[in-house]
Amino acid sequence: TPAVVLMSGRGSNLDAIVRAAIPGLDIRAVISNRPDAGGLALARDHGLHAEVVDASGFATREAFDAALDRAVDAFSPRLVVLAGFMRILAADFVRKHAGRMLNIHPSLLPSFTGLATHRRAIEAGVRLHGATVHFVTPELDAGPIVIQAAVPVLPDDDESTLAARVLAQEHRIYPQAVRWFVAGRLSLQDGRVCLNGAT
Ligand code: GRF
């Protein structure tokens, strides 16, 4: 399965997916919107092709979106993996990759869509928090859920201790979701997640 990974930061989810050595997964490119993303060096250390579509290089959002679309299309991916990609994608890009684009969000969706999820979870006093892998749809952080992991919020947690506990689970469930997709066991049928034939 030819895949492209989009990321913006340190790339720990990319690293976890690469280290999972998923049979059949062919990461053709890692693309970042930020030239300073630590994940670029990490990708190259893994021998992966890495490139930058630098958002600051484009006068308009549309010009960036078009450049990103071209960069991804060059690799004809059957799977697009968003691994900490901190840009909102154009709706037509999302539609083009419908059913073939995954994202990981650091909360138990539908709770805490958006940013600063760990701080908000602590502030809300929830006792369970976690991470969600979902198919990407035009609505932000709202696509059909593939897999989730829950972690306890402990009384002495702060944002960083909770984030670390969640991240460890991200590194478990994201490779699992990719493994299912590459094995042909995971699909989106009429907006519903189908795993191993069950919807
Ligand atoms: C993770 O917390 C993920 O849930 C969110 O952004 C972060 C990505 O981290 N989408 P990394 O770049 O994969 O380490």
From TrEMBL:
Pathway where it operates: Purine metabolism; IMP biosynthesis via de novo pathway; N(2)-formyl-N(1)-(5-phospho-D-ribosyl)glycinamide from N(1)-(5-phospho-D-ribosyl)glycinamide (10-formyl THF route): step 1/1
GO molecular function: phosphoribosylglycinamide formyltransferase activity
Positions of (6R)-10-formyltetrahydrofolate binding: R61, M86, R87, I88, L89, N103
Keywords, sorted A to Z: Purine biosynthesis, Transferase
Amino-acid positions noted as binding N(1)-(5-phospho-beta-D-ribosyl)glycinamide in the UniProt annotation, renumbered to this chain: G11, S12, N13
Keyword set includes Transferase: yes
Coiled-coil blocks: none
Formyl transferase N-terminal domain ranges (all copies): 4-178
InterPro entries per UniProt: Formyl_transf_N, Formyl_transf_N_sf, GART
Family statement: Belongs to the GART family.
Official protein name in the record: Phosphoribosylglycinamide formyltransferase
Species assigned in the record: Pseudazoarcus pumilus
Designated gene of the protein: purN
